[in-house]
Amino acid sequence: MTQDALRSVAGGGLLHRRTLLRRGLVFAAATPAAVIGAEAAAADAAASAPAGPPDAALRPEWMRAPGAPFTPYGQPSKHERQVTRRISGNRLLPGNGIALTPLDELEGIITPTGLHFERHHNGVPDIDPARHELLIHGRVKQPLSFKVEDLLRYPMRSHLIFIECGGNSNAGWHPEPIQRPVGSFHGLVSCSEWTGVPLSVLLAEAGVDPQASWGVAEGADAFAMNISLPLAKLMDDCIVALYQNGERIRPENGYPMRLVVPGWEGVLNVKWLRSIELADQAVMARNETAKYTELLPSGKARQFTFVMDAKSLITSPSHGYRMKGPNLYEITGLAWSGRGRIKRVDVSADGGRTWAQAALQDPVLPRCMTRFRAPWKWDGKPVVLKSRAIDETGYVQPERTALLAQRGTNGYFHYNAIVSWAIDEDGQVRHVYA
User: Pick from 223, 237, 416, 434: most CB atoms within 10 A?
Assistant: First the structure.
């Protein structure tokens, strides 16, 4: 490996993103081994390899007996049981609360269905799909009702889409930085392949009244969640989803059908969808008045803040990690934007004084998570890592100070400030405001 390959392009030891494409790089893993060429490593391995196949008695037990039989539905390995949703419930009402996606335990961009985040107000309903119907009514020419079996006959579309709760990362508004793993702080966001019927097709069949400008979506849970959406968005790219990641939607994510509203706050993606009423004004439900409305420093209030702005976070290294000494590492994380595609992610290893462009892993899709990666040579000295996302509209993820200056300290929703991780000489990683 040439020294040019390890030449920093920004402070703190960040390397050029193309370094990831070079052969001969060995990143820090289980032990802080020296960085060596792949060819040399292969030669060493060949020299130490036994001359022939190992004696059967020396093989591990899983090579000496038949394995487990087939199962009707696959499950994760027992050795991965720690990779679970992190539940924060209401002690007085067990069906009210959240279950967060362990982002720091995952790779790629797709969230396994069983780890998709949950937000419930009154538990998960046990809905009989044979009795469930979607009613489209209100300001339409003819009200229509669709059974599940009806919708399954329609041509469908699939989209890779992130869904993020408007309250995700809300601990960032706190005066002191919270010290929790990424998934326990930012885990109210997940990314899935959603498949279903374009809502515009169903609305067109019902016939939209020219006076209609809003739609009110309602769920079939005991909370009867209802919320308003502009008709223009419903006609644009919303779908009535029946499948998630190739299988029928699971109960906690809206079985037998849910509304998917690409790029907009999660509360609008109504689960267990049972009704869409077209109207000439918003319904002013609880979740658009008492909630999702915030007082600004000017005295005015933010309301109907539908779009999720560009956001990124480094998932490795992050809180709870411990570096294994000076070495070559890969910084990796996730970025997303409700406005479209992620155009660029910059990474800093000196607290934001200088930045290097990270490599974006394909595919890079609109309103979908994007995985970014950056090579980094850590010298063992204290550093502060950051990432910032820029989407295709030119929107730049703000520093926390800028977000507070704009929005004040009364916020709870739509926190998307740059996240900072401080690493000390011992390799401990903690969340900081920097």
Answer: 416
